[in-house]
Specification:
- The chain is mainly α and 603 residues long.
- It contains 26 helices and four strands.
- It has a four-stranded mixed beta sheet with strand order 2-1-3-4, covered by helices on one side.
- Strand 1, helix 26 and strand 2 form a beta-alpha-beta unit.
- The protein starts with a helix and ends in an 8-residue tail after the last strand.
- About 1% of the residues have low confidence.
């Protein structure tokens, strides 16, 4: 089996997919400046508190230098920066990033490159995961006579879909924890299944338990919401693990991992997490009730059933390749009704006649005619609605695969995939009802499901290849149109113009803080003074307070790119909201280094 899986041909195809994934992720990586969350990432990784709570002695004085800014930081500084900048979340990611930037520097490209690495490694891990655990998922031996070939082809389809997945590509362009968490949660699931398998074989996988324990702890400390994946592990164990020794081992691993994580909550940055989360829940709930649309945080609605469902639909639909992006484009009740009706009719024909070798001529023409029949009647986004019609029979093929092709031995694994695919998002919906607002229902908080959904989608595509050409070719053509839409979505991501994936309707320019730092180094002469603007700063909780009269974020973000031993004289200009200015000491000439006026990505 393994010889077939890791044949030279399969490895070459995998290498091509991995190369494609890497190119898609590294392309234009450093083109656009860092957005607000990445600013937090940059400062936290250097042990610097956003807005300078651990730099009061630096910014409380009238003048400061980069040497003052870069005074040595302690581990306590790192913890405080993590508390104030990210509610104590993701310390393992910030540790990895600090080590990386110590070696490769502080450029935008360098800061984001670990996300590229983890996202690319996820593709390789997906191949290992599928070939190792789904080698005999299909009972249809006539279609898949060798388990190795079946698993390898399924794995390669899965890897290709993941390689071009816009969600993975977009978050590999961000200096945030997400790509790392996607990799770690998949690794933890892989180790979990290996443990269960070894225990069923009555082996003693001590090393695997240690690896699983460490991975669980590191994963939770990369993002707290990864705990939803481990809830899935527990649910699978409850349903399908019958070995007492396995239960003892898994319980011990969980206790040790959670015990290690609890130290962070008791003594580290996590000790303020629940306080901050509770405050945020109240804050966003108040906005949802009083100012849901023009609050500066986006649309935040009260957590009614209708509002939660409205926010959940694009999260669920964008998980699946067939419907990725359609929730934003397929608008209008009449259009949706017509596309759905035609899709259901096509599914009915497929269900009734898909096993017939020589059906009537009208049957062979029915599916393509049903898919295109709505084109003259859709009032907008015609081709998106065609894809929506085709998505319904594709979902049917996925259901048929799970009901017909999965053998009894593999059924628990498929149930596990379904659990992993829906539980993280269901958790977000539950938390929305609990907190009273919809702000947290967003794709990145349940993105841990993507690898498993991608595998399910690959199963549906494998099923598509078994259909007669009069059924498979029209659906394949519709899916090629969807591939084209995915390509257009990637184009918008690369141009920083897709709000869902880049958070901006207007593209950013290159990093203005790095640009300003370079200009200061070029123009500064002894006796000159650099003046930084001061934004109006809002303090929401005790954690936000720093006892400084003005905002210093622009000064911080420029100084982080200046040489650590530089003696440039700098100060905050409390009367200037927008411009970084260099004042020449001999002449008093004022040179504008950068003007932020009207640039939303500054915040």
């Amino acid at each position: 089996m393994y010889q077939n899986q890791y044949s030279k041909r399969n490895i070459l195809i995998l290498a091509g997919i991995v190369l494609l994934a890497f190119v898609l992720r590294v392309y234009r990586l450093g083109t656009y400046g860092i957005y607000f969350d990445e600013k937090s990432t940059l400062l936290i990784s250097q042990g610097v508190c956003l807005e300078g709570a651990n730099q009061r002695d630096v910014f409380a004085q009238k003048y400061f230098t980069p040497t003052d800014f870069w005074k040595p930081k302690t581990f306590a500084d790192f913890i405080e920066a993590n508390i104030r900048g990210d509610i104590g979340n993701s310390p393992s990611y910030y540790g990895v990033l600090w080590l990386w930037m110590e070696v490769f520097g502080l450029s935008d490209f360098s800061m984001r490159f670990p996300s590229v690495i983890f996202s690319t490694l996820t593709i390789i891990l997906l191949f290992i995961f599928v070939t190792r655990h789904f080698g005999h998922w299909s009972r249809d031996s006539t279609l898949h006579p060798t388990g190795g070939d079946s698993a390898a082809s399924l794995a390669l389809i899965t890897c290709f879909i993941a390689a071009i997945e816009p969600f993975f590509v977009s978050y590999s362009h961000m200096a945030r924890n997400y790509s790392m968490t996607f990799f770690l949660t998949l690794l933890a699931t892989h180790l979990f299944l290996l443990l269960v398998e070894k225990e069923k074989a009555r082996q003693r996988p001590i090393g695997l338990y240690v690896a699983y324990c460490l991975t669980v702890a590191t994963t939770i400390l990369s993002h707290y919401l990864t705990v939803t994946v481990f809830l899935c592990h527990a649910l699978y164990a409850l349903l399908y693990v019958r070995q007492t020794r396995a239960w003892v081992g898994l319980a011990a691993a969980a206790v040790v991992a959670l015990g290690g994580v609890s130290l962070w909550f008791l003594f580290g940055g996590g000790k303020y997490t629940f306080f901050t989360l509770n405050y945020q829940a109240q804050f966003y709930r108040n906005l949802a009730l009083t100012n849901p649309y023009n609050n500066g945080f986006g649309i935040i609605l009260p957590a009614t059933v209708a509002n939660v469902a409205k926010r959940a639909v694009p999260v669920f639909s964008d998980l699946v390749f067939f419907t990725n992006g359609l929730a934003a484009k397929a608008v209008g009740y009449r259009n949706i009704f017509l596309a759905g009706l035609l899709g259901l009719a096509a599914t009915g024909v497929l269900h009734r006649y898909r096993n017939q070798r020589s059906p009537a001529v009208w049957v062979k023409a029915a599916l393509p005619l049903l898919l295109v029949a709505g084109l003259p009647f859709y009032t907008t986004s015609r081709w998106h609605f065609l894809v929506l019609s085709a998505a319904i029979p594709m979902y049917y093929l996925l259901a048929a695969t799970l009901l017909e092709d999965v053998d009894r031995r593999s059924r628990p694994l498929v149930v596990f995939l379904l659990i992993l695919s829906v539980v993280p998002t269901l958790f977000l919906l539950l938390m929305a009802f609990r907190s009273g607002h919809t702000y947290g229902i967003t794709q990145r908080y349940s993105g841990f499901s993507f690898p498993y959904v991608t595998l399910l989608v690959a199963m549906a595509f494998r099923k598509l290849t078994t259909l007669r050409p009069w059924f498979s070719l029209p659906l394949a053509a519709a899916m090629l149109i969807q591939v084209a839409f995915i390509g257009l979505l990637l184009h918008r991501i690369y141009n920083d113009s897709d709000p869902k994936y880049t958070y901006f309707g207007k593209p950013r320019i290159a990093n203005p803080f790095l640009r300003s730092a370079r200009a200061i180094q070029e123009l500064y002469a002894p006796g000159d003074t650099v003046l930084y603007p001061s934004l109006r700063r809002r303090e929401y909780t005790e954690i936000d307070k720093n006892n400084l009269p003005v905002s210093i974020i622009d000064a911080q973000l420029v100084n982080v790119y200046l040489p650590k031993d530089a003696d440039y004289i700098q100060r905050i200009d409390g009367t200037e909201p927008d411009k970084i200015v260099l004042v020449k000491g001999r002449t008093g000439e004022k040179i504008t280094i950068f003007d932020f006026k009207g640039m939303t990505y500054r915040y």
